Backbone:
């Protein structure tokens, strides 16, 4: 059995092990909620035992004038410096959800898609505007900022928390207004996009992935490019030139593919030339 799916599944289950919450429709608020995990997993999911790093970061930025949590910022910096985007590949529950969505056979002839660089920068804009700028500068009615990404954009919050909570509460369903409709439509678009394109949200929209990518060049955990000879990359990268780049999630699939390559397949250059036909360069 492959190690990565096992680790991803265990992380997803551990993050959402509060089964009572799914049955009662209530959010766990015990002492474990003070622990911030590395991957994207909504705080308000009925089963969530821990805090989401993006939600925690927005919360401390929103109230920075009154208090500042060195625990959260130090933890995020430590996660990035040690792991980089390895967290995206192994330790992110919503990353696993995206991969499971991609297995749905809704579209025929799925291929590895190389997304144009312009679209890859969107997640950095979301990080700068919705995770940092709006919580700091956009004040609510009590003079305190608010978690703009969680409130307006996060599909993980809608899928993991909004839909289960609404399903179990008639009162919440009646109270759901235009904002929830917007987030539901956005989440539906993300779901369809992830079915069609491998980890579309992770690659284009996720601000947590954008944050960790800033550490990819210097993080302690890295992949040796010599171990990726003749490999394919589901993220649309060239493993020989772009391993450990900003978009590399260090899933290790390229290493496994390289090890399986038949002895008579040819040189690395020949293999990359043959496999390049599988990559679509979107306009």
Residues:
């Amino acid at each position: 059995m492959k190690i990565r799916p096992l680790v991803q599944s265990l992380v997803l289950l551990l993050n959402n092990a509060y089964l009572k919450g799914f049955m009662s429709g209530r959010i766990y608020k015990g002492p474990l909620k003070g622990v911030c995990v590395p991957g994207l997993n909504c705080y308000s999911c009925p089963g969530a035992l821990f805090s989401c790093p993006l939600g925690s970061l927005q919360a401390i930025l929103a109230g920075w004038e009154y208090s500042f949590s060195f625990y959260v910022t130090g933890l995020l910096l430590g996660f990035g410096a040690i792991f980089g985007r390895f967290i995206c590949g192994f330790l992110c529950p919503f990353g696993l959800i995206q991969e499971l969505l991609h297995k749905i056979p809704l579209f025929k002839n799925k291929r590895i898609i190389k997304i144009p660089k312009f679209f890859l920068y969107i997640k950095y804009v979301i990080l700068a505007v919705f995770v940092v700028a709006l919580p700091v500068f956009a004040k609510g009615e009590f003079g305190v900022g608010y978690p703009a990404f969680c409130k307006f954009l996060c599909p993980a919050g809608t899928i993991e928390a909004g839909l289960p909570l609404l399903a179990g509460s008639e009162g919440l369903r009646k109270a759901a207004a235009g904002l929830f409709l917007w987030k539901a439509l956005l989440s539906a678009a993300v779901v369809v996009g992830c079915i069609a394109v491998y980890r579309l949200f992770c690659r284009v929209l996720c601000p947590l992935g954008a944050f960790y990518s800033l550490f990819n060049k210097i993080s302690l955990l890295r992949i040796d490019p010599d171990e990726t000879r003749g490999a394919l990359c589901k993220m649309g990268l060239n493993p020989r030139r772009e391993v450990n780049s900003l978009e590399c999630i260090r899933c290790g699939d390229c290493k496994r593919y390289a090890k399986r390559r038949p002895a008579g397949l040819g040189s690395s250059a020949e293999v990359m030339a043959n496999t390049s036909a599988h990559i679509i360069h979107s306009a």
User: Anything to note?
Assistant: The first strand starts at residue 112 and ends at 114.
